[in-house]
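Sequence only, no structure available. Ideas?
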Amino acid sequence: MMRSTVLASLLALAAPSFAATCANPDTRPTVVIGTTDTLVPNRDADGAGSGTCTINDLLAASLPNTTWSSRAQFVSNANRVIAGLPADVVSAAQRRALLEAVATSDIGSTLTVKLIGFNDFHGNINPVSGNYFGVTGPTGGVAYMASAVAALKAQNPNNVVVSAGDLIGASPLASALFHDEPAVEAMNRLGLEFNAVGNHEFDEGRDELVRMQNGGCHPDAAEQANGHTCRGAEVGTPVPFEGAKFKFLAANVVDRATGKTLFPAYKVKTFRGIPVAFIGMTLKGTPNIVTPSGVASLEFRDEAETVNRLIPQLKNQGIRAIAVIVHEGGFTTGGKDDCNGASGAILDIVKRLDPEVDVVVSGHTHWAYNCVYDGRRLTSSGAFSRMLTDIDLTIDTASRNIVATSATNRVVTNAGATPTPEVKAIIDRYNALSAPLANAKVGYITADMTKAQNSAGESIAGNLVADAQLDATRPAAKGGAVAAFMNPGGLRGTDPVLGFTSSAAGEGDGVITYGEAFTFQPFGNSLVVMTLTGAQIKQMLEQQFVPSATASAACKAYNPQTTQRILQPSASVAYSWSPARPDCDKVDATTLKINGVTVDPSASYRITVNSFLATGGDGFAVLSSGTERVGGDVDLDALVNYFGKVSSPSTPLAPPALGRITRY
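Reply:
I predicted one. C-alpha cells follow.
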C-alpha cells in the first residue's frame, strides 16, 4: 500500500502525464538516462507486477527528448522521482548512481519535433498503380497514407502534418467529380494541419477555394442537381460539406482591393511551450499557369521577399523556429533522399531566405528530394499520395531555435499495410458513387499512350489530344479550325497515361474507360477557336522557350516565358526548331507549315486552344490577342467523342506517330 501511495505521489509531481499502469511499459533491464546505462535494475516502480510503470517510465530520460521543455524541468522531475523511490526498490548506492547520471546528462536541453510533410496530393484518394522507388505494386491512396501518418505520429507526441500545395485540383474522377470534397474530407481525418496553397488550388477560382476552407455546398444549381456536391449523407460525412479543418496558408497571395492575404500568412504551433512558425505560400508565377480571370483580383508576390518580411514579426513574438512550406520546387538527378544535380526555381528562393528559416518543405515539380541545401533542410515528396517526408527537428530549449534536422522520404506502401478504416469507408463510398461513370468504356487502343516528350518536346499523348481538339472544332459551325495546340501541363496522370493493360476494374486490355480519360484530362476546360495571324502563331511558338540572360529587352518583353513548355500540335502542323538559334527566333519560320503549306506571317488562321491557354495561361500571352473567338466543347468531351469516332473493339486506335516537331 505504501509503494502505491508513493508512486501516486510521484506521478502527480511529474510534469508528463503518467499513469500507475503504463500502456507500454519500458521493459529495458536497466535504467538508462540519456546515453548513460546506470546498470541500476529497471524495476517495477510500485511492485505491483507486470504492466505497471517502471523507473524508466517515471524518469522519461530517453533520447531524443520528446517530453521536457527544458533541462531544469527534467532535472527537477528526475530528482523528485529518484528521491521518492522506496529503499527496497533502489539501494542508496543505486540512488547515487541515478542522481549522478541525471546531473551529467543533457536531457531537456533539446526537444525533438516530428514534421510530417507531403505535396501535390492532387485529390489522389485511391492508390496509384505501378512501382515507385523500388516498391512493387500500388502505393499511396489516402487511407494508406492516413495509416502511415498515424504510425509516424505515434513515434513522437510532438508532431505536425503539413502539405506544400496542390492538395486539390487536377484530381482523378473519384474526387474531382465532387469538386474535391472527398479529398478535403479525407485530409480532415488524416490529421493535416497546414496546407500552403498551390497553383491548382485556384483551378476553379478564388471563391471556390474559399469554399474549400469554409465549407458549404457548391453554389452551382446544376452541380447540386447532378449530385456533384454535399454527398455526406451517403458517405458518412457532415452535410453540408464541412470544409477544411486544417488551415490554408497564403503568405504571398494578396487581395488587390484590401491589401490583406487571402488566407493567413503563417500559423504557429507550440510544442511543450516552444513555438514553431509555419509560413505557407505558392509560387509567384501562379497567375501564369492558372486561368487568369480566376485570380485577377489577387497579387502573387515574391516568395523569399515575403518570408523575409515576416521574420522580424515572428522574432518579436519570441519565435525562433521557422519552417517554410512553399509550392515551388526543383529537380535532381539522384535518388529520393539527396539533391544531386539539383536545379529549379526553389534553389534561388532558398538562397535568398533569411538565415532564421531552418526548414523548407517544397513541391510543384512532383519530384522527390531531401538534403541540406544552403544550410537548411530542403525536401519534396514526389506527388499523388505515394510518399511522406519524415522530418525530425531538434530544437534548443534555451534559444528555442532549430539546431539540427534529419529527414527521410518514405514511400506509402500498400503491401502488408492496413488502411485507416474510417478514411477507407468514406473513399469506398465515393468510389461507388462515381463507379458507373468511371467504368464506362469510351475508347480502344493498340498500345500505351504516353506523355513523355522526345528531344523535340513532342509526345504521343499530346498529339492525341491535339488531334481530338482539332476534330471537334474543324467543322465550320464549330469554328472552322485548321490547327490545334495543347499545353503539356494539361496532360495529367502518370505514364502510361492511357495504358493498354487492363486496370484492376477489369475493363480489359486496350480499353479506355471514362475514369482513365478523366484522370488524363481533368480540368474541364472548354475549347476556344480564334483567329491568329501567321506572325502571331510564330510568336506563340517562340513563347515556348525561355529567353536567355543575354536576350534583348525587346525579346524579353515579347516573350515572358519562365519555363520551357512545348505545345503539343495537331497532325496538321509541322515545324523545326533549334536551341542554337537566337532568342525569340528558335523556330525556323521556313519550316512552319499548316496542312503542308508554309505559314504566311500576314495571313489569318483559325486555331484551337483550351480556355486556359486562350487567356494567356502558361506564359502564352499572345493568345489573349486572338480575335473572332468561338467557344466549343469541353476538352474531355472532345477526347471521348474522338475515341468514339476513330476507335472500336475491332479497330482500336494506334498511337499517333511522332515527328510533327523536329529539333536540329
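The first strand starts at residue 30 and ends at 33.
Hope that gets you unstuck.
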